[in-house]
């Protein structure tokens, strides 16, 4: 499988041979499993206080033959607060009572992480990489012109330091329309503590061989992410199981197969 190698000004320098994994099938079932497994690593265990609903003077005195048992008084026999003068107050401790214990609390020992076989995860990663070269899938969500996918750029892009220079490169590659679509954030509605949080639509993913200066240049552009091949995850390539536009450096393309052999969840 061949691809065009673009210069930083958007002109085609030459044709290059892509690794065989770019021609693999898109296994959406594996990709979805891998995304869920990656997301599960970010879950935070939750639990309730062991003494929640128990810090009270409530006492159960409902046994037969016990003083103040409360039988035949028209009151439910439940753990009740002990009041001054020997009186019994509101029901406490039990889950059905106001300020009582929680019926089915979160448990800290619950298993939140969804595991995935290492070989299966690598297959999902290969499938996600292959999907970035499928024009019909990428065009379903992104705006691109007639570029051949994937978009491979010479290694000079890894040394770009300025956000302005990186924007010029992406515009020369014909990606300005998709970037503009990502500039308007979605404002979340609902509760005040959640509302007005900005979320930008995923646009271009720039894949480089090693961590480089272009990461600092790309983090200020809404919708743009820069990742090295050693940090590549399925969710970066196909967020929501939908392939996104990927711009690869020439060195990243040549080293991707070795990086996949070391990839793990």
Helix/strand layout:
Layout: E1 2-6, E2 12-17, H1 28-40, E3 80-82, E4 88-91, H2 118-131, H3 135-139, E5 151-153, H4 163-172, H5 176-181, E6 186-187, E7 198-199, E8 204-208, H6 214-218, E9 225-228, H7 234-237, E10 245-249, H8 250-262
Parallel strand pairs: 1-5, 5-10, 8-9, 8-10
Antiparallel strand pairs: 1-2, 3-4, 6-7
Helix pairs in contact: 1-2
Summary?
The protein is of the alpha/beta class.
Describe the 3D structure.
With 265 residues, this protein is α/β, with parallel strands linked by helices. Helices cover 26% and strands 15% of the residues. The protein contains 8 helices and 10 strands. It is elongated and about 95 Å long.
Q: Mean of residue pLDDT?
A: 90
Biggest beta-sheet profile: 6 strands, mixed
DSSP summary: helix tally: 8
Separation of the first and last Cα atoms: 28 Å
Uncertain segments of ≥5 residues (pLDDT<50)? Answer: none
**Overall 3D form:** elongated
Reading the helices and strands in chain order gives EEHEEHHEHHEEEHEHEH
Strand order of the largest sheet: 2-1-5-10-8-9
Radius of gyration: 29 Å
Key structural traits:
single chain; alpha/beta; two-stranded antiparallel sheet; 8 helices; 15% strand
């Amino acid at each position: 499988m061949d691809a065009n190698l673009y210069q930083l000004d958007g002109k085609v320098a030459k044709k290059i041979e892509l690794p065989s994994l770019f021609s693999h099938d898109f296994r959406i079932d594996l990709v979805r499993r891998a995304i869920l497994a990656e997301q599960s690593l970010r879950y935070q265990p939750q639990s309730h206080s062991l003494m929640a609903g128990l810090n009270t003077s409530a006492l159960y005195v409902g046994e037969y033959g016990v003083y103040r048992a409360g039988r035949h008084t028209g009151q439910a026999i439940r753990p009740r607060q002990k009041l001054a003068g020997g009186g019994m107050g509101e029901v406490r401790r039990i889950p059905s009572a106001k300020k009582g214990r929680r019926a089915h609390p979160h448990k800290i020992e619950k298993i939140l992480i969804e595991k995935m076989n290492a070989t299966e995860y690598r297959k999902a990663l290969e499938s996600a990489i292959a999907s970035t070269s499928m024009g019909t899938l990428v065009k379903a969500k992104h705006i691109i012109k007639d570029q051949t996918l994937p978009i491979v750029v010479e290694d000079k892009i890894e040394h770009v330091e300025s956000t302005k220079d990186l924007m010029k490169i992406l515009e020369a590659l014909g990606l300005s329309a998709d970037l503009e679509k990502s500039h308007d954030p979605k404002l979340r509605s609902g509760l005040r503590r959640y509302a007005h949080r900005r979320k930008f639509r995923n646009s271009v993913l720039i894949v480089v061989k090693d961590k480089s200066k272009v990461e600092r240049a790309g983090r200020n552009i809404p919708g743009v992410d820069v990742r090295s091949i050693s940090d590549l995850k399925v969710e970066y390539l196909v967020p929501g199981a939908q392939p996104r536009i990927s711009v690869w450096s020439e060195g990243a393309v040549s080293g991707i197969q070795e990086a996949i052999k070391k990839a793990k969840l």
